[in-house]
Amino acid sequence: MKQNRRSRGFILTLKGWDKLQASITKADLTDNAQLGFSLEELSSRMGLALHTVSRIQGRSEPIDKSSLQSAFAAFGLELCEEDYTRPNPPNELEVRGAYPQYDWGEAPSVSVFYGRSVELVQLREWVLEEQCRLVALLGIGGIGKSTLAVKLGLEIQTEFEVVVWRSRRSLQNAPPVEEILTSILQFLLWALRKEIAIAQSFDGKVSKLMECLMNHRCLLILDNVETILLSGDRAGQCRPGYEGYDRLLKCLREVPHRSCVLLTSREKPREMIPLEGEKTGVRSLQLKGLNPTEGRQLFEQKGQFAGTERDWQVLIEHYGGNPLALKMVASGTQELFNGKIASVLDYVQQGIWIFEDIGDLLESQFNRLSMVQEEVMYWLAIHREPVSLAELAEDIVTSASKRQLPQAIKSLLRRSLVEKSEEYFFLQPVVMEYTTQRLLDRVKKLGNGVLGIGHRA
Ligand SMILES: Nc1ncnc2c1ncn2[C@@H]1O[C@H](COP(=O)(O)OP(=O)(O)OP(=O)(O)O)[C@@H](O)[C@H]1O
Ligand SMILES: [Mg+2]
């Protein structure tokens, strides 16, 4: 079906796109001062529906030739043969690379992608129907936030005039906010054909960004926002010296604009919390793991495996459906057990930690915890069953730690290390396993003063 529809339409060639943009920019300067044409203005000038204009701009979905002609005519141009072409069914690289106004930079590949249909429907609704200004994808490391953000972005990019992805690498080095702002602005101004004049001051940069986001429909994706958040007591707060990010998030959240900023983070930024909910334009999605069928597909990417339905289910649930964990376990199962799921389960059931890589992943999360948060994690591992806040308060020895307990639990929930069901708190099996191992190591190191767990060595 899709193939048929495709073969009936055309898209602009890069040359045609350039020609049209140049005329739009020229008309901008004469008719429209500095503001730039909005999608609505283009639509009324071209006499075309909004979605047709965004398809023309996006160059990925085909449209009929007469619409392209109208678009060109609206800016005094004639559509020539070199200006349009029939689109090939795109592969991922083409979708990412061929459109100059979509900067996917170092975004991860999604050529292998399973499940997430419910999440994609939900996110499309928030971004496209509700036109949310700020959407966060949250969850533990490896759960698939970045992958889902790319998948969604590639699917909906043609609804936007510009897409900018600023990723793990740039954010992970936690550059000052001004640097990130400059890099985003440079691309936005170029793609929107505006003069690339960037103010020196932080406020000047923010107001330029907001002007772009207000006058044009842009999709801005910021990956790994937790790297600019504080580790320790208060999850979600900005690191000292990075408060500019707080102010930026506040603007993105509060100033009405027509664009969407999509964040991925292991922790929920504090700036997301006050306004979140219906009709506020601010939403967040806590990502859960893949289900056993999807998890199994991920495994089978790595080779052949043997196991009963039950084995698969137990194994995938044990790792909370975490795609990164599953990929690592799949490799380990191939290397060590010739693909036999039952053999891995033997180890898993004895609580033997065999896949170091998952430990590394969790270790990096643990290293960000405050003493009280770490202590809570150990108590949850000792209990093994879900426990209430009151039960945890009984475990904790010092009164200072007791006072900090509610805040610690909140932070751990926000960091996705702890799960909650009704009023009970618990750990995912794989997190429990790691925490138990870590506790045992500490006991070995510190002797029997286990409750020295409240005092970092
Ligand atoms: N739906 C999926 N289908 C197939 N593979 C997936 C899926 N989601 C994630 N993966 C794979 O799992 C790994 C981890 O995913 P991803 O990097 O998106 O996690 P993340 O939540 O962004 O982690 P981090 O917090 O470390 O940034 C990647 O190798 C990715 O390819
Ligand atoms: Mg990520």
Automatic annotation (TrEMBL):
Q: What Pfam families does the database record attribute to this sequence?
A: NB-ARC
Ranges for the NB-ARC domain? 122-268
Q: Which domain of life is it from?
A: Bacteria
Question: InterPro entries of this UniProt entry?
Answer: NB-ARC, P-loop_NTPase
Q: Which PANTHER family match?
A: HTH-TYPE TRANSCRIPTIONAL REGULATOR RV0890C-RELATED, REGULATOR-RELATED
Record protein name field: NB-ARC domain-containing protein
User: Which organism does this record belong to?
Assistant: Scytonema tolypothrichoides VB-61278_2
